[in-house]
């Protein structure tokens, strides 16, 4: 994979005669359209400046098809405190495999800054990008181009893996010949708190707290057996049913992952109670890419009633410390891809406080909230009818737009469907939102099959390989190290799984999938395929301006560097 340290400074104020595009103030949308030269677009970078001032505001970044009115593909927020003066700000997003030759539009907006207190983007005032235009508030300029560079997949072999995954999944190929794209590892199946909505109330999933000290944890030596997978996948998710940070060797797991792959994404979910200063520092140093915190209420008393055993103030302090460590690293000009996220199970005790949840996330520097649905035997907690809570959701949505915090997840889709008058909006399910397998109506064969058997492998704490975290009660597809990871992935168990999800109404266990309950979208939609959070190998593609005057020295070499392999890169 390409690494940040391998980038060559191909743009500079002296060589390209850059100038500020103007401060990004409320009411201004600064945008740039461009044509991508390569397949597999997954990162864009802008050259930003803060004039060495500590500017504290939030900016919304959007990527659309074609132009200002095009279909929204991706959005995220970033805190301007992270901006390094005259430095490149990176925006990573799910891979767009067929990006070659397509036109895209990148925009920046803010709602909370003031004149004299905001960042600016560098641009070329007299040049323009080939096939692209600079926009101010949706209106194109005759000249000018933001200082922009893009990253695409490194080589044909990697692009081939994505194409083969999409083809094999769409056609239901049983004997799939490519390795998985992402790995889930159940580091621990124990937890240090006792949530009221936990599906392990009867102790059937996780190991009880009173069990022996080693029970419920994956041995590190077993994790080492996963090296072949760690060297091939693009995303490693170190969590399952339990609290991963309860494992005494959790940091060692991340260190070994980085030994196997310097640039894969490393993600995990946590309740945040065990994130002390030393662990937080190591997470930042090891370039962990995403930490999602479970915050089921913005109110301390309600939070502690729901998440019994957790202390609200301690969790919030732990999140703030992690954010500050990341921001300090970025301010020092060092690499950090860490994104902070929040997950909340929407239920009776917290549904009236969705707006306060959004405001808490904004204060913590969290740009994304995943509103999860509650399912299972919890009649006292499940929301049977969303209609009485529409005003609560409307207010939360308005706050999210004001504070630029993205709202995603099944409950968001359910509320939106109800607002639009859809008759399928239910508290217990919703149409596909790109976060899980396409849903199906119970008792009927899905019109679209689940793509997980072609992209994901899940290894539980004992070495059992199962289709996903919801399949723990069914027969394993193999066991590590009794079989190698290749023997399991390419073996009969996975072939039967792929055959089952394509040809059977439900593969055993899938009838209880969280996504079941509503009519599915079209077969393996483009949105679902492009929603897979992966960080593939990449080469830099430079958006070269069309210079009316003779280009500066070295520009010819730059223009030919479309598929140049960066120094120090190669197989991860």
Key words describing this protein structure:
22% strand, 572 residues, globular, single chain, disordered N terminus, seven-stranded antiparallel beta sheet, disordered C terminus, ten-stranded mixed beta sheet, alpha/beta, 16 helices
Report on this structure.
With 572 residues, the protein is of the alpha/beta class. It is 24% helix and 22% strand. It is built from 16 helices and 25 strands. Strands 21-20-19-17-16-15-13-22-23-24 form a 10-stranded mixed β-sheet. Helix 9 links the parallel strand 19 and strand 20 (368-373). Helix 9 (354-363) packs parallel to helix 10. The longest helix is centred in the middle third of the chain and has 20 residues, at 312-331. Residues 1-17, 422-447 and 516-572 have low confidence and may be disordered.
Q: Based on helices, strands and strand pairing, what is the structural class?
A: alpha/beta
Largest sheet: 10 strands, mixed
The total count of helices amounts to 16
Quote the beta fraction.
Answer: 15-25%
Strand order of the largest sheet: 21-20-19-17-16-15-13-22-23-24
Average pLDDT metric: 75
Radius of gyration: 24 Å
Q: Indicate the percent of residues in helices.
A: 10-25%
Report the span from N to C terminus: 6 Å
Query: Unreliable stretches, pLDDT < 50, 5 or more residues?
Result: 1-17, 422-447, 516-572
Total number of beta strands = 25
What does the overall shape look like? Answer: globular
């Amino acid at each position: 994979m390409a690494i940040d340290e391998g980038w060559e400074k191909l743009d500079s104020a002296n060589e390209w005669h850059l100038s500020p595009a103007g401060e990004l103030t409320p009411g201004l949308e600064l945008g740039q359209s461009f044509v991508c030269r390569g397949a597999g677009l997954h990162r864009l970078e802008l050259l930003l400046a803060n004039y060495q001032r500590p500017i504290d505001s939030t900016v919304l970044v959007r990527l659309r098809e074609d132009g200002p009115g095009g279909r929204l593909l991706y959005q995220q927020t970033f805190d301007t405190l992270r901006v390094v003066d005259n430095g490149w700000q990176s925006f990573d997003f799910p891979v767009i495999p067929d990006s070659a030759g397509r036109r895209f539009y990148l925009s920046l907006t803010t709602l909370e800054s003031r004149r004299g207190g905001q960042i600016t983007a560098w641009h070329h005032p007299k040049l323009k990008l080939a096939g692209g235009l600079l926009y101010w508030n949706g209106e194109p300029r005759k000249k000018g181009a933001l200082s922009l560079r893009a990253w695409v997949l490194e080589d044909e072999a990697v692009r081939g893996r994505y194409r083969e995954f999409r083809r094999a999944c769409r056609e239901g190929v049983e004997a799939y010949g490519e390795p998985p794209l992402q790995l889930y590892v159940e580091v621990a199946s124990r937890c240090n708190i006792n949530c009221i909505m936990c599906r392990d109330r009867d102790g059937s999933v996780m190991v009880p707290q009173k069990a022996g000290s080693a029970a419920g944890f994956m041995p590190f030596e077993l994790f080492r057996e996963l090296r072949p997978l760690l060297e091939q996948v693009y995303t490693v998710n170190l969590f399952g049913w339990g609290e991963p940070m309860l494992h005494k060797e959790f940091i060692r797991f991340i260190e070994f992952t980085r030994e196997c792959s310097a640039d894969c994404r490393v993600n995990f979910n946590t309740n945040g109670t065990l994130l002390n200063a030393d662990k937080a520092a190591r997470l930042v140093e090891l370039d962990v890419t995403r930490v999602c915190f479970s915050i089921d209420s913005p109110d301390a008393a309600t939070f502690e009633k729901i998440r019994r055993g957790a202390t609200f103030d301690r969790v919030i302090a732990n999140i703030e410390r992690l954010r500050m460590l990341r921001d300090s690293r970025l301010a020092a000009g060092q690499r950090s891809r860490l994104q902070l996220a929040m997950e909340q199970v929407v239920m009776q005790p917290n549904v009236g406080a969705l707006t306060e949840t959004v405001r808490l996330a904004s204060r913590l520097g969290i740009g994304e909230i995943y509103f999860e649905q509650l399912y299972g035997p919890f009649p006292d907690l499940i929301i049977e009818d969303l209609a009485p809570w529409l005003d609560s959701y409307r207010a939360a949505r308005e706050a999210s737009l004001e504070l630029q915090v993205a709202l995603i997840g099944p409950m968001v889709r359910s509320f939106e469907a109800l607002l639009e008058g859809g008759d399928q909006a239910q508290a217990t399910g919703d149409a596909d939102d790109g976060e899980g397998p396409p849903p199906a109506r119970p008792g009927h064969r899905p019109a679209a099959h689940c793509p997980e058997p072609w992209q994901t492998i899940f290894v539980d704490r004992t070495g059992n390989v199962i289709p996903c975290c919801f399949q723990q009660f069914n027969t394993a597809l193999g066991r590590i190290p009794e079989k190698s990871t290749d023997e399991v992935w390419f073996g009969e168990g996975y072939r039967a799984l792929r055959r089952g999800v394509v040809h059977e109404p439900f593969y055993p266990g899938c009838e209880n999938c969280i996504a079941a309950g509503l009519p599915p979208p079209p077969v393996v939609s483009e949105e679902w395929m492009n929603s897979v959070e992966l960080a593939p190998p990449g080469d830099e593609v430079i958006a070269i301006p069309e210079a009316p005057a003779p280009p500066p020295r070295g520009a010819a070499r730059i223009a030919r560097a479309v598929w140049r392999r960066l120094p120090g890169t190669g197989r991860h």
